[in-house]
Amino acid sequence: MIALERISKSFGNRTILDDLSLEFETGKVTALVGPSGAGKSTLLRCLDLLERPDSGRILVDELAVDAASATRGQVLELRRKTAMVFQQFNLFSRKTALENVAEGLHVVRGRSTAEAREEAARQLDRVGLADHASKYPSQLSGGQQQRVGIARALAMQPSVLLLDEPTSALDPELVGEVLATIRSIADEGQTMLIVSHEMNFVRQVASRVVFLEGGKIIDDAAPEAFFGPNTSERTQAFLREYHLALGGPEYQI
Questions:
Q1: Among 37, 84, 187, 249, which residue's CB has the most CB atoms within a 10 Å radius?
Q2: Please, what is the Cα angle at 174 between 169 and 178, to 5 degrees?
Q3: Which residue from 146, 153, 234, 240 is spatially nearest to 193, judged by alpha carbons?
Q4: Is residue 227 within 8 Å of residue 237, measured between CB atoms?
Q5: Are 55 and 68 in contact (CB under 8 A)?
Q6: Residue 201: helix, strand or coil by DSSP?
Q7: Is residue 160 helix, strand or coil?
Q8: Any idea which fold 1-81+166-253 has?
Q9: Count of CB atoms within 10 A of residue 92's CB?
Q10: CA end-to-end span of the chain
Q11: What are phi and psi of 142, to 5 degrees?
């Protein structure tokens, strides 16, 4: 089980997450959507304690952690069960694609160099980059760099893969290759929590869509219901705004 229980997080006087509880189904893809500043990325970062919540509990598999008072050992144990794919790739510029993927396996998991490199090669092949293993980030496109980031996360064999707007830093022509990679991983049954503004992708790949605003859950439904006529007025307004921002016709519920 993967769950957040009564998570609250504030920065100064601004409440980002407001007593929020969510449970995520194993083997499914949950998409977090909503306007900028809704708390989506903060929620992801709180789940693996990159941001420390003010209160609440985090549960991953058999591990239950009090978010505000977790010990260093509990934080490390939690992070062994999660893996984050960042917006900006965060690759080591002086390491090859293979070395970037192998690094966590060697340093965090304690795998031998040979074992780490073997697993890294397998994960690069999984994301379609076997032929680019010896290239450095500067020799890769943005889409390829992000796929290396996904391979690096998958190599850690996480209970849940966290993706924070994985296409937001890419040129439009590179978005498709990353989304196709994520889709193939979803088809394999990897539990994922993804923040995305790509509504068509969310509609096709997510098992569940959660709409956040003001640190609260406004709607929580399967895609066919979320994009249907029975969601809240705020969600319907958000979808209309999204389609208009793309220059298309007004969204029809």
A1: 84
A2: 85
A3: 153
A4: no
A5: yes
A6: helix
A7: strand
A8: Rossmann fold (3.40.50)
A9: 12
A10: 33
A11: -60, -40
- Name the residue with tokens 């394999």: 188
Helix (H, G, I), strand (E, B) or coil at 240: helix
Phi/psi for 20 (5° steps) reads -95, 135
Express each pLDDT in 69-88 by its tens digit. Answer: 999 999 999 999 999 998 88
Residue 150 CB partners (closer than 8 Å, separation 6+): 85, 127, 163, 166, 178, 181, 182, 185
Q: List, for the chain, all residue ranges whose pLDDT scores fall below the cut of 50.
A: 249-253
Is residue 226 a contact partner of residue 242, using CB atoms and an 8 Å limit? Answer: no
Helix, strand or coil, per DSSP, at residue 13: coil
Tokens linked to 221: 């439904």
Residue whose token pair is 């060697």: 106
Would you say the pTM of this structure is higher than 0.85? yes
Give the up-direction half-sphere exposure of residue 150: CA atoms within 13 A in the CB hemisphere.
30
Q: Which two tokens stand for residue 169?
A: 């830093």
